[in-house]
Amino acid sequence: MNPALTQIGNDMSRLTGVRAIMKDIVETLRAGAGKEFINLSAGNPVILPEVEQLWRDCTADLLASDEYGEVVCRYGASQGYQPLIDAVVMDFNRRYGLELTDRNVLITPGSQSLYFYAANAFGGYTTGGNLKQIVLPLSPDYTGYGGVTLVPESLLAYRPTLDIDSAAHRFKYRPDFSQLEINETTGCVLFSRPCNPTGNVLTNDEVRKIADLAQPYDVPVLIDSAYGPPFPALNYTEMTPIFGGNILHCMSLSKAGLPGERIGIAIGDERLIQILECFQTNMCIHSPRYGQAIAARAINSGALATIATEVIRPYYQRKIELVETTLDRHMPADLPWFLHRGEGAIFTWLWLQDLPITDWDFYQQLKQVGVIVVPGSSFFPGLREDWAHTRQCLRISLTASDAELEVGMKRLAEVVAQTYGQTANSPALAS
Question: What strand order describes the sheet that includes 393-397?
Answer without folding.
Answer: 161-165, 170-174, 337-340, 347-352, 393-397, 374-375
